[in-house]
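Recall the central idea of this unit: under ordinary conditions, the amino acid sequence of a chain determines the structure it adopts. In this exercise we apply that idea directly, starting from the sequence alone.
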Amino acid sequence: MKINFGIRSSLIILFLLLYISSLFIINNFFIKKYQQSNKLFQDMKLDTSISELSFQTELDSIQARILLNKFRQNLADAKMLKQEAQIYSIAFLLILMIFSIAIFIIFLYKITKPLDQLQKATNKIKDGNLSVNLPVTGIKEIRNLKQSFNEMSRELNSTQKKLIQSEKNIMWKELSRILAHEIKNPLTPIQLTMQRLEEKYNNDTENLYAVFPESVMIINQEINNLKNLVSTFSNFAKNVEPESSIFNPKTEIAEILKSYQNDFELKLSGQNCMIKFDKTHLYQIITNLVQNAIEASKEDDIVTITITQKDDFVKICILDSGIGIKETQLDKIFEPYFTNKKKGTGLGLALVKKLVDINNSSINVTSKENEGSCFEIIIPNYPFEKGIA
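Accordingly, the structure predicted from this sequence is:
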């Protein structure tokens, strides 16, 4: 198993190894000195001194004993010196090691403390706090490092503020474009209704009063839709949840289609059922898809809206027999600003996808060029009502 030591552990281990090595070196030094002293004793001309004695008199014997005793004493003293040298060297090295380690730890703390501060400050930046500022203290290299870190933090903070402001500008610009696009949808039936009233007023005043109530109802309905749109986009900017309610989608879609049926061929069929959805969002979704289907169709083509109910979901299908969509573009049609229309903003289907998603539903599209398109909105079936009479 491979063991990875930190900088502190590595330096302490290295420091201990150096001191232990020094201990052995000094110890060996004293041993060599002792050996040298022994050699000196051994090299004493004791044999010569003794050989000079004739041992014929008692004085010679006494001198020989004195020489031998002195020699033995010197050997004992040398051995004691060796032991004392070892003890003193060990004690000295231990004291030196403890003192040096204390200085080393203090010095290491002075280095590693700023590194710990840098690590904590880096973690704060990683968590999104870009206003971190470290005190410029310590040795020269540490001060330079902290100063560079503070400059980086200030730059990141400034860049983040610019990015946030830029994102806000882009968001509001996109919201403005989407709102402008969505306002056009209710304006279309209002314009058509007004044109119809103007035509009756100019050419058929007898039937003017017959269509007037229905026309006023359509205009009032679309004005209310405009109000709902403004309210919805105001909430959209606040990221609020959809205001879901339980209703029959066939009834709501029939009301939406009234604004178009006098000028276009639309067919609504399918089952009565119940869904849980935001009514305003459903209006925006259906209006966008129907408007696109009408624009893609020829003058006499029929746009069909079919509602079917399964055990787990309700499916709303908007089918047209218009120009269709290229296969290579099917994956892009729900992307913002993607459009094939000369005057399109590319936000209608993007908004449809967003509104479908936040209502916990899904949307699929199948299309062939020059044969038409089918947009399917799949809504989870409301569990407490499988249908209505």
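The beta strands are 244-247, 265-270, 275-278, 302-309, 313-320, 362-368, 372-380.
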